[in-house]
Amino acid sequence: MIQIEGVGKSFGQTKVLDGVDLRVAPGEVVSILGASGSGKSTLIRCINGLEKLDKGRISIDGFRVDDPKQLQQARRRSGTVFQLFHLYPHMTALQNITLAPIEVLKVPKREAEDAARELLASVGLSGRADAYPAQLSGGQRQRVGICRALAMKPRYLLLDEVTSALDPEMTAEVLDILAKLAAAGTTMLFVTHEIDFARQISSRVVFLEQGRLLADLPTADFFAADGGLAHPRIAQFLSKMKKDH
Amino acid sequence: MRYTEFTVHDILLLLQGAGVSVALFAATTAIGLMIGLAWAVLRYYRTPVLAPCFAAVAELLKNSPVLVQLFLVFFGLPVLLETDVTPVQAAVVTLSGNTAAFIYVIAVSAIESTGREQIETARVFGLSRWQILRRIVAPQAAAFGLGPLTGLLVNQLQVTSLISVIGVMDLTKVGAILNLRTLKPFIVWTVVGLLYYLMAKLIATTCARLESRLRVHSQWKGL
């Protein structure tokens, strides 16, 4: 269980997160929607311990992210996939995936590489194990990014706008993989602008606006006229997103 | 009577001088690399007291003439410590310190060139600061720093010629002796200059080769 309680975070005068409460139970797929600058990415960065919390607390399976002594344990439980991939450019796809298992989990090299090759095959990249990130397309890079997160066998997958830097075709290839993961019961916290896809795979949808949670509803309720759409701001946002597509 | 002709022996003398220059260069580069990199690592860990101290030392060393440093070590230290300092000892100490200061500067900027997002990513995946330095920062910093390092090393090779003034029998000192004897400065200094050029070229070529190996990952091979 990821438990987020009353989290507040400001950068200077700007309140980015303002009293956010959220729980993600194992097996759930929770989508976070919201305009750019609404605090979605910051929330992810708070969960994986990259930002210090000004207020509130976050724990993952009981391990406090805001306690430096428990942070490492908390981080072991989640895997993050980044919007701009953030692959290590000097390492091959295979090395990108095996680095953390070898260094952090102390998995023997051969074992880690075998597992990485299996992961690469599962995302259709069996032939690209020895390619450097610069030699891969955006979609391929993000698929490697997903493999890298999965290689740590996380209980929770944090996805931060993982398709925002990709064209529609590459977006489709990445979403395809996420749909498979969701179907396999992977717990995901999914920051996205892909509304239709969120609707399709999420069990719950939350909506962030200026650092506050405007809605936290089961997917069907969120998109129902008397549910999330009853909220004017959410209705406005969704219709705007539809127009743009 | 002055013997002004060149002899076969002069070639050996020149090579011997070149050997002394190369040996000093190699030794002081090795020592300078170790010290400079150690300082940079202390800075990476933001070690209190030590890191700012070494930064100040590096600042002093790189902003004062090597020749002045050399005189300070060769003439000043013996007075201060009441011991003898041989010319070779003074040369090794001075050049190592000077090289270390510049390598520190290069290493710091190379370390800082690694994208913050990569370090954050590695942290999220649970890597320790040392693991991040070793696996993420160092390989990229090496590729980044090798260009400036090449320039520095070629320059430091030339700087070794300064030690001839305190009597170390390096290539320049041999040149000076041959020049005095033969009174053919144009030939002597041309040969000496060419020998320095060859050594510098060797350093630059070796570094360039190493650099292209470290940059394999950014060479586009096509999809």
Structure description:
The complex is a heterodimer of chains A (245) and B (223). Chain A has 245 residues and is of the alpha/beta class. Chain A has two domains: 1-61 and 157-245, P-loop containing nucleotide triphosphate hydrolases (Rossmann fold, 3-Layer(aba) Sandwich), CATH 3.40.50; 86-154, no CATH class. In chain A, 39% of the residues lie in helices and 25% in strands. In chain A, helix 3 crosses helix 4, helix 3 (93-103) packs parallel to helix 5 (138-150) and helix 5 (138-150) runs parallel beside helix 6. Chain A is globular, with a radius of gyration of 18 Å. The mean pLDDT of chain A is 92. By secondary structure, chain B is mostly helical. Chain B has a single domain (8-218), classed as MetI-like fold (Orthogonal Bundle). The radius of gyration of chain B is 21 Å and the shape is flat. The mean pLDDT of chain B is 92. Classes of the chains: A alpha/beta (245), B mainly alpha (223). Chain A binds chain B through residues 48-50, 72, 75-76, 79-80, 82, 84, 86, 88-92, 99-100, 103-104, 132-137, 148, 152, and chain B through 117-118, 120-127, 131, 135-136, 139-140, 143, 216-223.
Short description:
The complex is a heterodimer of chains A (245) and B (223). Chain A is of the alpha/beta class and 245 residues long.
Q: How do the helices and strands line up, and which of them pair or pack?
A:
The complex is a heterodimer of chains A (245) and B (223).
Chain A: E1 2-11, E2 14-24, E3 29-33, H1 40-47, E4 55-60, E5 63-64, H2 68-77, E6 78-81, H3 93-103, H4 109-122, H5 138-150, E7 156-160, H6 168-183, E8 187-191, H7 195-201, E9 204-209, E10 212-218, H8 219-222, H9 232-244
Parallel strand pairs in A: 3-8, 3-9, 6-7, 7-8
Antiparallel strand pairs in A: 1-2, 1-4, 4-5, 9-10
Helix pairs in contact in A: 3-4, 3-5, 5-6
Chain B: H1 8-44, H2 50-62, H3 66-81, H4 87-112, H5 116-124, H6 129-159, H7 171-182, H8 185-214
Helix pairs in contact in B: 1-2, 1-4, 1-7, 2-4, 3-4, 4-6, 5-6, 6-8, 7-8
